[in-house]
């Protein structure tokens, strides 16, 4: 399926039920039957879009389909029905205050592929519910549904009379009817805009009757449009639980807050750069960590940002072993921006390279370093490179080095000996650590050796392969220089390996 239609609905149906009718009152897209003259730009845009959208046709007669989708006996509940290779998803709504020509029940139905995942089906059910609640609230407030049902029913009645007097094709009849409704009903226009926004962007922001806002994000569709592999909102929630204050936020597009958006979002946006951690953003913006985390969660769930580790010279990057989308999706764009070939640049991260090595100030001018820095941001933005973090295990050496079994008993410093005795590791490992400590006491002042030893002891709960150097730095409040120095001193009892952060590897 083309990216244009990936995860997007095939069609939208507005099904209504009253004492006098049970019908598909409106459907979109439909096959345009003739050129329509319309001065209202909102109506005209929805009509013109029909030239670029392929209508979907159904195997069942409209009357039978309307009866199946009306939701009679199952109102105010999520609705799902599979027929042939299509799935009909909606939320039949009982009208709270039926007046005039309003129906008793209506259902905004999205037609999607039969094999669509359960998570996506749930998303469409939630959107249908939002639309239904908005329509019903406006009906209660100002007879909104009654007014538009009059327009819709008049269009159907007029074409019923035309069909009875002229033997016209049913499909042409439906197209003329829906086209007439689209010209005269803002409800139909709003439904069309919802359908088009879902297809184009995966985001919906429509003010029904210019009063009630319907906001919705189809994360999978947004990710595809952003050039990223799709993940579900449930996966994003799992990812959010792994975020730490040392992570950074990479905005995917220009995030323009709406007129009624929180002022905190605007404040955070000013400081949201890939080289700034969430903790830095909190300090710079004057907002609490909880406020920043809430806004970050909002940005992630609305597919406006991804999580990275703050970009710095020490970061080690590797080209992705399995790019989430084919490279051809990015090569032309990369060439257009940087006048370089993407595969050649990616090859410079295999084997892995630090940002400092990639920029290489001894080879590249200051201007070229800026260009190459932006290349790294591009590659991170599209997950074409991943950052490798160093994870550490505390374990016995693999070498055949022999350490006396009573090395711990002969440790020169009693404080170190007592601390090691309390450590919950094997006796062999304690003996190796004791040998390292004795060596430290021989080559440096006791106070300095004690500082290194105490830092190592405080680090041992984190040396289980679950924490990388940056996480250890954050938890202990120490600089990279201090942490790496401790790891170098006790390297004989440590095993290191490099891999992406859990927050990224979970969905790669």
TrEMBL record:
One of its GO terms (biological process) is cellular response to amino acid starvation. It holds the Pfam family NPR3. Keywords: Lysosome, Signal. Its main location: other. As a component of the GATOR1 complex functions as an inhibitor of the amino acid-sensing branch of the TORC1 pathway. This is GATOR complex protein NPRL3. InterPro entries: Npr3. It is found in: Lysosome. PANTHER family: CGTHBA PROTEIN -14 GENE PROTEIN, GATOR COMPLEX PROTEIN NPRL3. One of its GO terms (cellular component) is GATOR1 complex. Belongs to the NPR3 family.
